[in-house]
Amino acid sequence: MSEHRQGSSGSKDAEATHEGKFHCVTFILGAELFGIQIGFIREIIEFDGITQVPMMPVFVRGIINLRGAVVPVIDLSVRFGRGPTELKPSTCVAILSLPGLEGGYNEVGIPLDSVCEVLEIPFSEIDPSPTFGASIRGDFIQGIATIKGRFAILLNVQQALSMSELSALAETVTLNHFSDEAQIA
User: Fold this and answer.
1) Which CATH number is correct for 12-184, 3.40.50.2300, 2.40.50.180, 2.30.29.30, 3.20.20.70?
2) 3-state DSSP assignment of residue 99
3) Could you state, in order of their start, the residue ranges of all structural domains in the chain?
4) Taking the model in full, what pTM does it have?
5) Can you give the pLDDT at residue 14?
């Protein structure tokens, strides 16, 4: 995975605070509205196909070539325990730059149905993650905000796309695959 250094320290506080506001990009995934801290988003590109990679966990849609760099594409919908994101003409890929396991930054792509807008939401207007009824793991949610009369789930991308957890899941899938092959032989 390629490394990319953002202008800020990458800390949650440095990324999230902009005069007491949560600075984010909102997007649609399935039928829901989500927000990601803008400091994690390197760029948003048109969807131009994904190369599938064998023996990857189901939430890894594949890889893309981003100006010569190989970038894995993680399907948030599958990561949230839902079906795969339907690829449509409006589908785009957000390239995120996340703190890596060994320092530096890792780039990860996530397919989005569509991008809505860039917003600054005052922290006073953000409710904490719900403790019941959420269809997404609580640690994946940084908070809930109401935008134009609609709930928006503000994601904690460092948890939802935790490099250590994703690596462990990929390793488990690989070990299970080889274990299954050994039993067949």
Assistant:
1) 2.40.50.180
2) strand
3) 12-184
4) 0.76
5) 41
